C-alpha cells in the first residue's frame, strides 16, 4: 500500500457494530474478491471486497473473516483467514502478510492460514444455528458474474442445508451508511489530496491541452501524495462532451471558449473522494457560462441547505427539482408553459438535469446506504447538481462531499475553490505545459 497505516480502531469498531446486530448462536463469513483473469497469464489489478475491507482493513487476496461470538473457545470468536506466505510465490508476486502484520492492520488477534481453516470452520458451523453470508446488494449493481460470494453461498447451502441462513448485506447496508469520526478523518485525507490536485489543474489548463494530459496531471498529483490512485475513472469532458455523464474517453483537445467538466477523486486508505468542477479552458467564463454556472452553484447551495437528518432522498430530490425549475426559468431554459404542462413523472427541468443530486460515499464511491428511508446523522453524501444544455453544447456540474450531522451537515470540501471568481483568479497563474 502507498498510504500510511490507518488506526486499526477504525476496523475494530466496525466489527463491533456488526457483531452487535447478529442473532444469538450465529456465525458470519466474509470473503475477499476473486482475482480475475485478464488475457494470457495476466490478472486484473486486485480490488478487495468492500465489506471485508470495511471490517478488517486487509487488502490481500484469498482472505476471509469469520465471526462466531458464541464460540465456546473465546480465541476463535473473531478469526482472520489469510493465505500462507510462500517463498516461491513471493519471489514472483511480492510480500504476503505475516500474522503480526495482519493483526497490526486489522486489530484481529487470531489469524488462521487458509489451507488450515476447513476443519475448524466445519466444527464451528456445526455448533451454530444461523449462518450469515455476504453478497453485493448495492442497488446500482448490474453484474451477473458468479463471483466468489455467490459461489461460496451455494457451496455452504449444499453442504449445510439445514442451517438458518441470513443476509449479511442487510446489516452492512445500514452499518456502512453511517460513518464514524475516524472514517471521516481518512476520507478527509482523500479530499485534501483531491484539493491539491484541482489547484494543480487550474494552473495547467489552457487552450490546446488534451483531456488525457489533464488526466495525467491528476494521476501524478494523486500518487505523489500517497493516494492509491483514482477512486473511479476520471471524467475529463471539454465542450459538448460534458453532457455525457460518464464520459471517460478523455482524448479530445480542449479549445478556447469551451468549458471543461472534471469529475475525479482520490482514493486513500480505502476511502473515496468525489469532486466535480467545471472551469473555462481559457481561464475566463463568458457572461452566459457564468450565468449557467452560478445557477448550478445556487442549486448546489440550496441542496446543502436541506440535506439533514429526517428528509428522505426522494423528498430531497423533489425539493431540489422545485428549485431547479425556478433557476431554469430564470436563465431561460424552460418557460412557464413548459412547467404548466409538465408530466409529473418527467418534469420539465429534467431535460437539463437528468440525474440524481446525491449518493452515499465511503469505501465505495457509490457507497451502501438507504435510498428510501430518512437520512441519518453520520451519513456522507455527494451533492452534485448539473445543468446540461444540448442547444449550447455546454455541461456544468458542481460536486462536493458532505457529512450529515445532528443539526445539518459539514461540507468536507469547503476549502476547495468553487466560485467563478476563485476559479478565474487561480487560473491566471499558469504552470509550464
Structural description of this entry:
The protein has 433 residues and is of the alpha+beta class. The protein folds into 2 domains: 169 residues, Creatine Amidinohydrolase, Chain A, domain 1 (3-Layer(aba) Sandwich), CATH 3.40.350; 247 residues, Creatine Amidinohydrolase (Alpha-Beta Complex), CATH 3.90.230. The protein has a 6-stranded mixed sheet with strand order 4-3-2-1-5-6, sandwiched between helices. A 3-stranded antiparallel sheet has the order 7-10-11. Strands 8-9-12 form a 3-stranded antiparallel sheet. The chain starts with 8 loop residues before the first helix and ends in a 6-residue tail after the last helix.
Keyphrases for this structure?
2 domains, Creatine Amidinohydrolase, Chain A, domain 1, 13 helices, alpha+beta, Creatine Amidinohydrolase, 433 residues, 6-stranded mixed sheet
Summarize the structure.
This protein has helices spanning 9-21, 50-56, 87-93, 99-106, 118-127, 148-159, 168-177, 181-202, 211-224, 287-306, 313-330, 336-340, 420-427; strands spanning 26-31, 64-67, 78-82, 110-113, 130-133, 164-167, 229-230, 235-238, 259-264, 266-268, 271-272, 275-280, 380-383, 386-389, 394-397, 400-404, 409-411.
Amino acid at each position: 500500500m502507498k498510504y500510511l497505516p490507518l488506526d486499526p480502531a477504525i476496523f475494530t469498531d466496525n466489527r463491533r457494530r456488526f457483531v452487535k446486530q447478529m442473532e444469538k448462536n450465529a456465525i458470519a463469513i466474509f470473503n475477499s474478491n476473486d482475482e480475475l483473469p485478464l488475457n494470457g497469464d495476466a490478472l486484473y489489478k486486485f480490488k478487495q471486497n468492500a465489506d471485508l475491507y470495511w471490517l478488517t482493513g486487509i487488502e490481500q487476496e484469498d482472505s476471509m473473516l469469520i465471526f462466531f461470538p458464541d464460540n465456546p473457545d473465546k480465541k476463535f470468536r473473531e478469526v482472520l483467514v489469510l493465505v500462507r506466505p510462500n517463498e516461491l510465490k513471493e519471489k514472483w508476486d511480492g510480500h504476503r502478510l505475516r500474522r503480526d502484520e495482519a493483526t497490526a492492520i486489522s486489530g484481529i488477534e487470531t489469524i488462521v492460514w487458509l489451507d488450515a481453516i476447513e476443519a475448524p470452520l466445519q466444527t464451528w458451523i456445526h455448533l451454530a444455528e444461523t449462518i450469515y453470508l455476504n453478497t453485493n446488494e448495492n442497488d446500482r449493481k448490474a453484474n451477473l458474474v458468479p463471483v466468489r460470494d455467490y459461489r461460496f453461498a451455494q457451496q455452504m447451502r449444499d453442504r449445510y442445508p439445514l442451517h438458518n441462513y441470513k443476509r449479511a448485506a442487510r446489516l452492512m447496508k445500514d452499518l456502512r451508511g453511517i460513518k464514524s469520526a475516524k472514517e471521516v478523518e481518512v476520507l478527509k485525507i482523500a479530499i485534501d489530496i483531491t484539493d491539491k490536485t484541482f489547484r494543480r489543474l487550474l494552473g495547467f489548463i489552457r487552450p490546446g491541452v488534451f483531456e488525457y494530459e489533464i488526466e495525467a496531471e491528476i494521476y501524478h498529483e494523486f500518487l505523489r501524495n500517497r493516494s492509491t490512485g483514482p477512486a473511479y475513472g476520471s471524467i475529463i469532458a471539454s465542450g459538448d462532451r460534458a453532457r455525457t455523464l460518464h464520459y471517460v474517453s478523455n482524448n479530445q483537445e480542449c479549445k478556447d471558449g469551451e468549458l471543461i467538466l472534471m469529475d475525479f477523486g482520490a482514493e486513500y486508505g480505502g476511502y473515496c473522494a468525489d469532486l466535480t468542477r467545471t472551469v473555462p479552458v481559457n481561464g475566463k467564463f463568458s457572461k452566459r457560462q457564468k450565468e449557467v454556472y452560478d445557477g448550478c452553484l445556487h442549486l448546489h447551495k440550496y441542496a446543502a441547505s436541506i440535506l439533514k437528518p429526517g428528509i428522505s432522498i426522494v423528498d430531497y430530490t423533489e425539493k431540489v427539482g422545485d428549485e431547479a425549475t425556478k433557476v431554469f426559468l430564470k436563465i431561460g431554459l424552460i418557460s412557464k408553459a413548459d412547467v404548466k404542462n409538465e408530466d409529473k413523472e418527467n418534469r420539465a427541468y429534467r431535460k437539463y438535469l437528468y440525474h440524481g443530486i446525491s449518493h452515499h460515499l465511503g469505501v465505495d464511491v457509490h457507497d451502501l446506504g438507504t435510498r428510501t428511508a430518512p437520512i441519518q446523522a453520520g451519513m456522507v453524501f455527494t451533492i452534485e447538481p448539473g445543468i446540461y444544455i444540448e442547444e449550447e453544447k455546454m455541461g456544468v456540474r458542481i460536486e462536493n462531499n458532505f457529512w450529515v450531522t445532528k443539526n445539518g451537515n459539514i461540507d468536507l470540501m469547503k476549502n476547495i475553490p468553487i466560485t467563478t471568481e476563485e476559479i478565474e483568479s487561480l487560473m491566471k497563474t499558469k504552470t509550464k505545459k
